Amino acid sequence: MIARRPHPLLSALSWLLLALLLGLAGGCASLPEPGPRPVSVARAPGEGMLGRLAAAHAAAAAEVSATEPLSGLRLLPNGVHALDARLALVQRAEHSLDVQYYLIQRDDSGLQFLRALRDAAARGVRVRLLVDDLYTAGEQALFAGLAAHPNVSLRLYNPLPARQGGLTTRLLLSLHERERINHRMHNKLLVADGAFAIAGGRNIGDEYFMRSRSANFIDMDVLATGPVVAELAAGFDRYWNSERAWPIQALMAADAAGDDTPPSPEALRAAFDEQVRQLPPPAQVTLLDALGRGSLAAELAQGRLTLHHAPVRVLVDAPDKQLETPAESALDATLQAMLGAREEVLIASPYFVPGQRGLAMLRQARDHGIRIRVLTNSIAATDEPIVYWGYSRYRTAMLELGVTIHELSPELVQRSGTLGVFGGSAARLHAKVATIDRRWVALGSLNMDPRSARLNTELGLLIDSPALAWEVEQLMQPRALAGAFRLALAPAGTQLQWHASAGGEERLLTDEPGAGWLTRLKLGLMSLLISEDML
Questions:
Q1: Which residues are catalytic?
Q2: Helix and strand counts by DSSP (H, E) for the chain
Q3: Residues whose CB falls within 8 Å of the CB of residue 275, separated by 6 or more in sequence, listed in order
Q4: Distance from C-alpha of 57 to C-alpha of 73, rounded to nearest angstrom
Q5: Read out DSSP for 26-84?
Q6: pLDDT in tens, 290-336
Q7: pTM beyond 0.90
Q8: DSSP state, 281?
Q9: Nearest to 6 by CA among 392, 458, 389
């Protein structure tokens, strides 16, 4: 499975070499004129089924607290239930869908999702879809075909100037705008009828919903209703109406460069319909998720939902984050909340590169008696080995500060069965979630790394809910951590040890599991070309 993070665009020597190649290739690509960007805003909840259900939960929340606005919340820890929830909201929407994703893949999950958006538009629902442009290579016609349907508007965020070829070609021919294109929109959000929203770590693709044969992600989203939805919708509007969101029609002229007759809207529409016509219907969800809850589609059909009520703070970066110098990014706000802990912070992050600033914060937490526990990927689990290499340089220092570190093991996860049924596929952590003092939950798209801090835009939620924090704790420990190695330092030394528990037996490893000498050599050489602030 290819990496799904923005490429850590190369520095120094690699940049010079690529610049020479670019010159030999014959010049620099450029974007066309953007054309008109009609301004539009989110719609308030209507009188439809989702609006009525949201109103009922608002009344229930008012009974819990008459003074503090509370939102209704539900974790979505299992992939099949997370896809079911998205499709259920799209299928139940009656007047608006606002959808924002870093990545939508051309596979069964991605095409089923796009087909559901088309079907909603055919019912008269206004659909606004915003997708980051980085991984749209070869998919512009697919997205343009959806946008050719009535009631659908589609924009690409921060498009690369090179519109032709695969990802590597487009990056090479766009390196004259390296600073700009290294800024990506990593947000993940769906808002249905202004009444319900889903936010979290999942993109749209088979591996995010436990449907890939090769590798699947352990991830986390939250379903929300109440005041938080209006804030999320307002955040979407900021991106939709920003100068970095380009209507796809404005880019099609560049996409069709060299063609005498670009495809007509009718041809694009017909091609899209043909691609999604023979897709199998999504599988009906009959099993309970890891928290003992069933299908959202089934609950919506019955007109009832099981939700927690809690206050929520929305953390959303500015669309022009890299150009601005914001007082506080989404990651900064999350870290400040963690520093406010009194006892304990539990962090799950697939890409964890603390840097010197992070080490200083961990030292500050230790000095205040705060316990820090981290769950991240092992080298065998990660889909980003070079980012893992950046993290690995800080493990000894973190352990010396008293941080508890667990690394997800694909082999142990498959044996434990507590984080999902992976079959023959590899298990990888992709969830970005934390608990603070078993009261607060921080959840969203942001990783604990320099890229989320400075380069990507991110979306996060800070939820004051002991009930949700307890659920996250149950998912992450102690049974779930039977699928992970616990790291330790050997007595009287700095050598790392990996402790594993499987089948009631304890194992101690002194060589890094899954990292042979060739892997270490390759990563060491790559690390010389990529600066840490790009990871």
A1: 186, 188, 193, 430, 432, 437
A2: 19, 21
A3: 111, 142, 145
A4: 10
A5: TS--------------PPPP-SSHHHHHHHHHHHHHHHH-SSS--EEEEEE-SHHHHHH
A6: 999 999 999 999 998 999 999 999 999 999 987 765 557 899 999 99
A7: yes
A8: P
A9: 458
